[in-house]
Design a protein that fits this description.
The chain is of the alpha/beta class and 279 residues long. It has a single domain, classed as Alpha carbonic anhydrase (Carbonic Anhydrase II, Roll). 18% of the residues lie in helices and 32% in strands. It contains 6 helices and 17 strands. Strands 1, 3, 4, 5, 6, 7, 8, 11, 12, 13, 14, 15, 16 and 17 form a 14-stranded mixed β-sheet that branches. Strands 2-9-10 form a 3-stranded mixed β-sheet, with no helix packed on it. Strand 9 and strand 10 form a beta hairpin. Helix 5 packs parallel to helix 6.
Length: 279
């Protein structure tokens, strides 16, 4: 891994370039900034005519899925990761709030209906909106794919999207999923009120995180998304992962998009312990 411990101006200008370069897409694509609410028009299995390689052809608003240059998910190869300390700790300020749960077609989604707080990136507030799960994980690490990935979606006042991703391997149960288990088992296609849900129950476990600019991993594959992937791989039980798949019951064994080309995009790894050019 390359280390850039003492060059904050380099990092700021680098990420400002990528965020600015995708700004036009936000301006012309207001209708497709958010993920689709009904996921049944697309599929995850190739050969169905609706698989990932065909997403961009299924809807004129989904062309970024096929033609975009900043697509997600990606692989994190060690040789492309730049270790830094200048990004600073991930700041989150969450609140317990009323939420709903829903089977959107390919995933289980929890949506907060009141102010559930925010994260702060580069001084900008991103309001917490919802979270959902993919199995197996969508992002990979040196080609390794884990058993589950949670996406926590936030949006700024001007429509920019920031997603926190947390990966899981089989082991002890995940506490957040454990609190939702009875709701997951009775989920339906309609939104169901599940009362107060505390987003602080989503445990990160590490201050280290990866940062890159990408896209939504489901149609419309909107680009310019600020991705924060927690470095620590947490644990989830096999039963919890199976419960998520059983709740959706879409006929597929997985809901993970294949990794996309990284191109020239930088991948940064925030490490508060980096000092004087050494990890």
């Amino acid at each position: 891994m390359a280390v850039y411990g003492n060059n904050p101006s380099f990092l700021i200008s680098l990420f400002a370039f990528f965020i600015f370069s995708s700004h036009t897409h936000f301006d012309i694509c207001n209708a497709c900034e958010s993920e689709v609410e009904d996921e049944t028009p697309f599929a995850y299995l190739e050969g169905t005519g609706r698989g990932p390689s065909k997403w961009g052809q299924l809807n004129p608003l989904w062309q970024a899925c096929e033609k975009g240059k900043l697509q997600s998910p990606i692989d994190f190869p060690d040789q492309r990761v730049q270790v830094v300390r200048d990004l600073g700790e991930l700041k989150r300020d969450y609140n317990p709030a009323h939420a709903t749960i829903q089977n959107r077609g390919h995933d289980v989604t929890v949506r907060w209906k009141e102010d559930a707080g925010k994260i702060i990136i580069n001084g900008i507030d991103f309001k917490l909106l919802r979270c959902h799960w993919h199995s197996p994980s969508e992002h990979t690490f040196n080609g390794t794919r884990y058993n589950l990935e949670l996406h926590v979606i936030h949006m700024s006042s001007n429509g920019k999207i920031a997603v926190i991703g947390i990966t899981y391997k089989y082991g002890p149960p995940d506490p957040f999923l454990a609190k939702l288990s009875r709701h997951i088992s009775s989920i339906g296609k309609e939104e169901k009120d599940i009362g107060i849900v505390n987003p602080d129950d989503i445990k990160f476990g590490s201050r280290k995180y990866y940062r890159y600019i990408g896209s939504l991993t489901t149609p419309p594959c909107t680009e310019g998304v600020i991705w924060t992937i927690v470095e620590e791989v947490r644990t989830v039980s096999r039963e919890q992962v199976q419960a998520l798949r059983d709740a959706v019951d879409d006929g597929f064994e997985a809901n993970a998009r294949p990794t996309q080309q990284l191109g020239g995009r930088p991948i940064l790894l925030y490490d508060p312990h980096v000092k004087d050019g050494s990890k």
